[in-house]
Amino acid sequence: MSDIVVIGGGAAGMMAAVFAARAGADVTLLEKNEKLGKKVYITGKGRCNLTNDCDRDEFLSQVPRNPRFLYSALNFFAPRDMMTLLEENDCPVTVQRGKRVFPSSEKASDVTKALTSLLRKLNVRVCLNAEVKTLTVEGGRLTGAKLKNGTVQRADAVILACGGLSYPSTGSTGDGYRFAEDLGHTVTPRSPVLVGLETEETWPRSLQGLSLRNVTLTLSNGKKTLYTELGEMLFTHFGISGPLALEASCHLPDPPAGAGLTVDLKPGLTREQLDARVRRDFSEAGKKQLKSVLPGLLPASLAEIFPGLCVIDASLPCNQVTAAQREKLLVMLKALPLTVKAPRPIDEAVVTRGGVSIREIDPGAMRSKLIPNLYFAGEMIDVDAHTGGFNLQIAWSTGALAGASAADHNEL
Questions:
Q1: pLDDT tens digit string along 10-49?
Q2: Which residue, 33, 74, 28, 26, is CA-closest to 54?
Q3: How many C-beta atoms surround the C-beta of residue 408 within 10 A?
Q4: Where in the chain are all domains bearing CATH 3.50.50.60?
Q5: What torsion do the CA atoms of 167, 168, 169, 170 make, to the nearest 10 degrees?
Q6: Alpha carbons 386 and 393: distance in angstroms, whole number
Q7: Residue 412 pLDDT > 50, yes or no?
Q8: What does pTM read for this prediction?
Q9: C-alpha dist (Å) from residue 173 to 34, 128, 350
Q10: Candidates 3.40.50.720, 3.40.910.10, 3.50.50.60, 2.20.70.100; correct CATH number of 3-191+353-406?
């Protein structure tokens, strides 16, 4: 029987331990926090968007960073497999809008409870408050892990599932990157993704809390469009956030400063249709001031500042708006411009971009190409995805494959 040590008790680590134990290994799971799945508890605002009920190709289309690396992992353990695993362990699931999957109770704690119970049934030794200091190596192979308290945990194979840098309060403080680098692995630069965007413009601050639905956000770098999507966004004290901004952050150029954003406030209307609508509204308004008509087109708080953004006097009677001024209104309604200053800090990000280079990991086993009995899983690998349950499924899938591979005697 192989002795497997899994370092990290998050989504990837728990799943790695489950699959290693299922394959007959003697598994020890080391978690430095006081409980397992600490980051899982806060996903989906505590509801836990645990996966997405889509096929592989649909899934990979939502992975902007190194999607091909995930073929084997998703084939080995697909979203439907995760749904079945939870159902079989007394955690019913429900598919909601956008094929997002949640526990039917909408309590993230139920997902962790189900996995914790499964670990117990599989006789996995779970060691909490067990922080690893270093990995021990002899003759080019890992022999185990040395804990901060001086204890040495021997192992035939080690699975690193230490998470990234996002939400450091959950224990994601970059330990895994240090372990990987100490063993000779390349760790690509880390940056925040699925995070709000700070803008050069300050006017969004006056709209703090305003949510826009059914708008199209486009991110561009010069003439190149990097991202465009219809959905919801939110104005904040630093710029913009909400689903569209978070997804756009996955496509930022390097460096991100100066990238252009435009918001189509009326994506359901062509420019010609919008022009006809504005002409009609202005014609009916007659001598009414521009500021009294714009709330018919826009949310009140945005309508209030919109003339200023267009450099038009808000008190101008509608029947005195010139063709050039109307053209400016149309341009701004269809492409309200913003400029990226920076993404928000990584400790506010949902996930971390960058990590252990995929060139140094065998995608068919999640095994290191440098150390024969070292495996990787989850966020510490240089792969990330959009919102919608995709990042958690990456953790489940890579964890499952790493666990099963590490327990295979032929590989050890």
A1: 999 999 999 999 999 999 999 999 999 888 887 777 899 9
A2: 74
A3: 16
A4: 3-191+353-406
A5: 70
A6: 11
A7: no
A8: 0.91
A9: 15, 17, 14
A10: 3.50.50.60
